[in-house]
Amino acid sequence: MGVRKNYRNLTNVERDRFVRALYRVKSTGIVDQFANEHASHFTHGIHRSSHFLPWHREFLLRFERELQKFHPDVTIPYWDSTVDRSPSDPLWNNNFLGQFNSAWNLGRALGSATLPTPQQVQTNQGRSTYDTFWPELERVIHNPPHVWVEGVMGGVASPGDPVFYLHHCWIDMLWARWQLAHPGAPFVSSGAGAGLNDPLMGWPDRTPANVLNHRALGYCYDTEQVLPTSPAAQGDDMQPGEVLNPGQSIRSADGQYTFIYQGDGNLVLYRNRDGRALWASNTAGRPVGVCIMQRDGNLVIYAPGGKALWASGTWQHPGSRLVVQGDGNVVIYRPDGRAVWATNTVQP
């Protein structure tokens, strides 16, 4: 599975390989082909509709596969524009994306708008339904970086600028993160022709249903925990990166309460003295995979194929750990000791 990284986390080898791959696909006409495709469909439902996110997920995947013809290990990195907000950031260095401005005549005017803020992203991630999530993501978070870069990036043929792919990779990551935090939220159509099983513009054999699970498409993000190598939780807590495999459990320090990922797929908190279930994820009967305390702070139950079945929604608190307490409560604590999630099962 390919791992898409924050561009700041690329090794020198990965960075240079990505740059060489960009030059290769430019020389073969692929960059212009993708830019023209985006331009031709710009007003045909790939923006301002519920197909905005799935269409661009498919678009990025197709471009990434073209890059991988140069080298199979190339993945698209992402640019988090709530963090990298200055024209002097390494993103724009001449050994990375800065060189393309003159080489490809992109006409950038960095700083031409106001970039989104971390608070805007956090607010957007808190939306509980797809039809409230995607319009705000597109308008408030996706649109401003296009204008901030300007030039080719500010027009309908924006994929002609390589930063388009880093920007949209970040947008896709935010969608993937929201999906993990809201595993039960269904796709909501914005109108005729924009449904879950309606074809994506330009690809009659591809629909949003085909791209909802990014892991099934063969990639994940560097904010996600790679499941197979994760150690099992022990004692009374789950540290960042630790898992509960089916049948595994942790207990409160006094032995009075057990938190178990059962063989039926349900995550349950039991009071041991009488076997009473105090809390459950209500995922019994769903595909049985793994429960993981992710490094981003989110407690997630994954099916074997990587689909998130349930999540605590605490992805924005990296380094958090889960504790089974002696009072009957299971709590996720940030590194600074602040509680960000709980089963709310304190016993009298």
Automatic annotation (TrEMBL):
Lineage of the organism: Bacteria, Bacillati, Actinomycetota, Rubrobacteria, Rubrobacterales
Cofactor entry: Cu(2+)
Keyword list, A-Z: Copper, Metal-binding
GO molecular function list: metal ion binding; oxidoreductase activity
Protein's name in the database: Bulb-type lectin domain-containing protein
Cited InterPro entries: Bulb-type_lectin_dom (IPR001480), Bulb-type_lectin_dom_sf (IPR036426), Di-copper_centre_dom_sf (IPR008922), Tyrosinase/Hemocyanin (IPR050316), Tyrosinase_Cu-bd (IPR002227)
Pfam families according to UniProt: Tyrosinase (PF00264)
Family listed: Belongs to the tyrosinase family.
SUPFAM superfamilies to which the protein is assigned, alphabetical: alpha-D-mannose-specific plant lectins (SSF51110), Di-copper centre-containing domain (SSF48056)
PROSITE patterns recorded: BULB_LECTIN, TYROSINASE_1, TYROSINASE_2
Residue ranges of every copy of the Bulb-type lectin domain listed in the record: 235-345
PANTHER family listed in its UniProt record: TYROSINASE FAMILY MEMBER, TYROSINASE-LIKE PROTEIN TYR-1-RELATED
UniProt organism field: uncultured Rubrobacteraceae bacterium
